[in-house]
Amino acid sequence: MPEEELIRTAVRSLGLADVSPFDPRKKIIEYQFEEPAKSLVRLTLREFANELSTDSPAPGGGSVAALCGALSAALAAMVANLTVGKKGYETAQKTLKRAALRAQELKDEYLRLVDLDTEAFTKVMEALRLPKSPDGQSREREAALEQATKEATSSRSALWKEHSSCSKLAKKVVDRGNRNSLSDAAMAAWSARTAAEGAYYNVRHQFTRAPGRGNSRPARPGRPPRCGGASSGRPAKSAAPLKKAIQKM
């Protein structure tokens, strides 16, 4: 169950909104430190798409890749929840209950990365705007750009590293989830692949543009793992078995 739904249940059961409206974003201290003032994840779908379509370079591909990961985890949680308690899936109950809980955690982490990626890239742009010295090697500008690039690469690397967990969850709901939701499970797998490929190319692009030399340069990533978690030097084929399974429905 999403954290927001748990809070709504607690508010109703404790009567916290009986006297006046209870706004978790204002009443719960932890929430006031979690998201930036202009959080992308607080926008509506239309507002986010509109923001994405402007001539501003951020939000961009990194935040969209993170969103794809969040949607993949959300779909995996949905399929798992639609399977728990259903007749004919008794042997999968424990596995899918754990998968549903893990999917909620991954969804929240990916949503955090939606904002984190844009914040990091904005810092890179701010560093690029710093004035150059006559010889073009301003120490302040170079140091700020190097630090901002490291942060941007770090956030995108975090996104890329989550793919193994996300794709494994998708595989679980494909293999053991409710057959009536197989197309949803397939979409979870495709979304996980999109998130991984997007993060990979963003990190790789950041690597090629990174300033500095030697250890100051971010580590170049390997290819994203496949849907089962196995490494591969070729593009992921996570949805290939799903096509066959869907055709048998």
- The second-level CATH architecture of the largest domain is Up-down Bundle
Number of strands: 0
Q: How many helices in DSSP terms?
A: 10
Measured as a percent range, the helix fraction is 55-70%
Q: The CATH topology of the largest domain, please?
A: Four Helix Bundle (Hemerythrin (Met), subunit A)
**N/C terminus separation:** 29 Å
Mean pLDDT: 76
Q: What are the main properties of this structure?
A:
mainly alpha, 249 residues, 10 helices
Verbal overview:
This protein has helices at 3-14, 24-27, 31-34, 45-52, 61-83, 93-128, 139-161, 163-176, 182-209, 240-247. It has 249 residues and is an all-alpha fold. The chain has two domains: 1-34, no CATH class; 53-247, Up-down Bundle (Four Helix Bundle (Hemerythrin (Met), subunit A)), CATH 1.20.120.680. It is globular. The two termini are 29 Å apart.
Summarize the structure.
With 249 residues, this protein is mostly helical. The protein contains 10 helices and no strands. The longest helix has 36 residues, at 93-128.
Task: Summarize the SSE layout with pairings.
Layout: H1 3-14, H2 24-27, H3 31-34, H4 45-52, H5 61-83, H6 93-128, H7 139-161, H8 163-176, H9 182-209, H10 240-247
Helix pairs in contact: 5-6, 5-8, 5-9, 6-7, 6-8, 7-9, 8-9, 9-10
